[in-house]
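[Meeting: bench + compute handoff]

Bench side (C.D.) handed over the final construct sequence. Compute side (W.E.) agreed to return the predicted structure before the next meeting so the bench team could plan truncations. Sequence as handed over:
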Amino acid sequence: MRTERHVRHDRESVVDAALRILDEWGLSELTMRRLGAALEVQPSALYHHFENKQTLLAAVADRIQETARPVPSPNSAGTRRHWPRRSTCATRCSPTVTAPRSC
């Protein structure tokens, strides 16, 4: 008798899988079909957690933004000449990508 293992996914695990696909394949290859295959579920099951692909991408962007270093505003204390470099570093950092040494 064959037993199937059913893994229940939540929003966080779906976002984790989406980030892995983005890191490996890039944005153009992040499809609901590929994401479903990575999680071993039907693509339609993903719509239980996200209304559409745009809401999924918004959650992915939120995750990346949460893990990025805070970016000082141009009017904050400190020298303005360092602001653009810090801003650039923050936009390149993600939970699965190693930050450049200068960040």
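W.E. noted at the follow-up: The radius of gyration is 18 Å. C.D. will use this when planning the next construct.
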